[in-house]
Hints:
Blueprint: H1 8-29, H2 37-56, H3 68-93, H4 100-122
Amino acid sequence: MDKDSLPQWAWLLLSLMAAAVFANAIALGFGVSEDWQIAVVVTVMSPVLIYVGVWYEEERQHYWEQARAKIVGDLLFLLTGAAIGSGIAIALTLDLIGTRIVRDIIAMIGGFLAGWLLFWWRNPGLYRPTE
């Protein structure tokens, strides 16, 4: 793919939309309850948020030179963190917050933050400024 054909925000938007469609298909296919569908969506969308930036930005291209096993491990950490973070957020807010949109936003924040923190923990040099 020619990454210069679209700006980074457009790649991110298109990728997030595709991930949302895929995640909802998974959730519906497995019969996930409505309250927990956002956990699937957050888990599938979290790699898009991280990896579109890593793929697009020139100063992060060295990430792709690592061993494939390290990249797969990073992806698994990211998915696990997003799933656990959004799951905990949903479990804590399910009975406390009646509005689904507020619960979904809290689950998104918890999931994306937990996933990114685990990814950052494994790759701290990726986000340090280069001199």
